[in-house]
Amino acid sequence: MVIGSGPGGYIAAIRAAQLGRKVACVEEWINHAGKPKLGGTCLNVGCIPSKALLASSEQFEKAQLHFGDLGITMDNLAVDVDKMVGRKEAIVEKITGGVEFLFRKNKITWLKGHGKLAGKDGANFKIDVSGDGKSESHTAQHVIIATGSKARHLPNVPVDNKIVSDNEGALAFTSVPKKLAVIGAGVIGLELGSVWRRLGAEVTILEALPEFLGTTDAALQKEAAKLFKKQGLTIHLGVKIDGVQTTDSSVSISYQDKDGNAQTLEADRLIVSIGRVPNTDDLGLDSIGLSADERGFIPVDGHCATKVPNVYAIGDVVRGPMLAHKAEDEGVLVAEIIDGQKPHIDYNCIPWVIYTHPEIAWVGQTEQALKAEGRAIKAGQFPMLANGRAMGIGETDGFIKIIADAQTDEILGVHIISANASDLIAEAVVAMEFKAASEDIGRICHPHPSLSEVMREAALAVDKRALNI
Known about the structure:
Blueprint: E1 2-3, H1 7-18, E2 24-27, H2 40-45, H3 47-66, H4 81-105, E3 109-112, E4 114-121, E5 124-131, E6 134-140, E7 143-145, E8 149-151, E9 164-165, H5 167-170, E10 179-183, H6 187-198, E11 202-206, H7 218-231, E12 234-236, E13 240-246, E14 251-256, E15 262-267, E16 269-272, E17 276-278, E18 311-313, H8 324-338, E19 352-354, E20 359-364, H9 367-372, E21 377-383, H10 388-392, E22 399-405, E23 411-418, H11 421-433, H12 438-443, H13 453-462
Parallel strand pairs: 1-2, 1-7, 2-3, 7-18, 9-16, 10-11, 10-16, 11-12
Antiparallel strand pairs: 4-5, 5-6, 8-17, 13-14, 14-15, 19-20, 20-23, 21-22, 22-23
Helix pairs in contact: 1-8, 3-4, 3-6
């Protein structure tokens, strides 16, 4: 039994079915049209729909600001927000329908409703499923908890997804706000703020932390801050939110700036994106002797096993980054462990991506973290500006940076800010999984002209032998 059908849950169910298990998956998601849907937050109101809107807004901004440089002119450029949102909904419908097809193909039973552990029945676990006014009980030999996460809200600031929105409401605006405020300069805040800025909103982001993208490499932080400011995103760091007042058509945010001065930000809409919390409420964990920690996470070992034999937890409800692809890998891992195999995950080789423009992606460790631990390192960096393909497609912002061990040359971290960074980072992940040296990437033939050549040049730059600069 898998509880939850997000990227971790549905992949775990499919892999377990491939390995010959009889599998059921519980999912309670009901979409805005009142239909039960598989896929969880990611497919319904997260990764997939946000990337659809990001793509639409990027194309609009390119047409508006950059097509002229390509010799393309057009008149009466306009945005049809309803059509844009409709396209997003169509993509969501297609991809969630695809998961339904995969469940049928792999003979996985979809139990529609809320799944809750209800103790043991001999050697098996009881799971109660309630929904649509009825309740039924099931038993399973193994249980995988994959219930994901939900948006963290500000205390005393109700989210109505009209004036004050979380990520879900911010994906369903019916018009472009004149002034948009965003609390939180993390992944979601930057991505959604970028969508509506490109479409014409004046966007101001308020961030409590004193550093911008503090978990990323310092070189990425500096470059991203410069590019986003140039694009028109206003970002205030080190702020303290004092209060939020709303009317039927506007919102007012009172805050203290980094110097402690009282400030007020007036806007038409507010997006609250201050992180996410695990969905571990009302799961009946105590019925089998489990409990969540003080932050709501389910404690697990390195193989996602809880302290109760045959009960596993994966994805956003356990330690580690809240990333869909991390959840998928853990889903496969657990299904294979149940099958008696011995898989593993190297958590240092899980890539991160922020789908701004340019995209930001990284894997491994930052230069500042390596220096703090006293590791002797060497680094190479190469700009997109010197790459012929980047020039040809008009995407010359950013760079690729590779960090390697000073003695062994093993790659310890790769940091990218550029167009297509989400695709380029995959080469770095493969290299690090195989414990490659920077010299290895430098010796591999890359296609010309391509953005991937910048990865090779950055690897060569580690030993100060880049060829095209």
